Amino acid sequence: MVYQKQELNLDPNSTREFFQGVFQDCLVGRADLKEAIAPFLPRWGWSRTVDDFLRLWFQVEHNINEPLVEAVQHLRQQGFRCVVATNQERYRLAYMRDEMGFGHLFDGLFGSADVGAVKPTLEFYERVTSRLSVDPGDIVFWDDSEGNVKGARAFGWRAEHFTDMDKFLRELTPIGRF
Predict the structure, then answer these.
(1) In b/e form, how buried is each residue of 71-87, taking b as 16+ CB within 10 angstroms?
(2) pTM of the predicted model, to two decimals?
(3) In 3-state terms, what secondary structure has residue 113?
(4) Phi–psi pair at 109, nearest 5 degrees
(5) How far apart are CA 48 and CA 146, in angstroms?
(6) Residues of the chain with CATH 3.40.50.1000
(7) pLDDT value of position 176
(8) What is the pLDDT of residues 25-76, one digit of tens each?
(9) CA-based angle 138:142:144, to the nearest 5?
(10) Which residues of the chain have a pLDDT value below 70?
(11) Rounded-to-integer distance, Cα 111 and Cα 93, Å
(12) Omega prior to 120 cis, within 30 of 0
C-alpha cells in the first residue's frame, strides 16, 4: 500500500514533545522507535498500527536526489569510498539501506543510532572516522546543515555545506573527474 503525505495530518505543535524528547534517545540507539512512538499515536489521531505509521512516514520522506546519487556512483567508479553519515534511528536507517537502495548505492551507512551519537557532536565524527579507519583529514563531507559542517570541520574533516547540485559539482571537481 502506498500512502500519501496528507494521511499523516500532523500538527508540528502536537509532535514537538515526542521529537524533542524520547525521539532523541531513538536517534542514538537508547530507545526503540516503535515502543517510544506508540503512546503518542492516539494523541495525534492515528488509529492504525505503529508499523503503518512508520511505513507512511518513511514513504513520505522517500526522496532520492538522483543527480547526487549519479555523482556518487561516478566517484565510486573512480575508486573513491562513498558513505552516508546521517542522524537516523534504526528503522529509518534500515529503510534507507533496503527500500531506498542505499545499501548498494553507497559503500556504507553510518546512522546515529548505530554510532551512538548524533551530528554535530564530536563523538559522532570521531566514531565514524574510527570505523572508517582513516585520518580525519582524508574525509570529504557534505551536509545540508551548516551546524553539521562546522562540527565536522572542528573534528578535522574537510566539510562543505550542500546547498545545490551545481555548487556541489563545482566543489567536487578538484576531487573527482567530472
Answers:
(1) bbeebeeeeeebbbbbb
(2) 0.90
(3) helix
(4) -125, 125
(5) 37
(6) 66-172
(7) 65
(8) 999 999 999 999 999 999 999 999 999 999 999 999 899 999 999 999 999 9
(9) 160
(10) 1-7, 176-178
(11) 6
(12) yes
Measured between alpha carbons, how far is 125 from 42 in angstroms, rounded to an integer? Answer: 37
Residue 39 C-alpha cell reads as 503512546
State the amino acid at position 19 in one-letter form: F
* Strand duo 140-143 + 158-161: pairing: parallel
| 3-to-57, 58, 62 alpha-carbon distances in Å | 9, 10, 11
Largest CA distance in the chain: 52
Structure-block grid coordinates of residue 29: 540507539
Length of the chain: 178
Q: What is the pLDDT of residue 171?
A: 86
- 2.60.120.10, 3.40.50.150, 3.40.50.1240, 3.40.50.1000: CATH of 66-172: 3.40.50.1000
Could you tell me which residues come within 8 angstroms of residue 86 by beta carbon, excluding any fewer than 6 positions away? Answer: 93, 96, 109, 110, 111, 112, 119
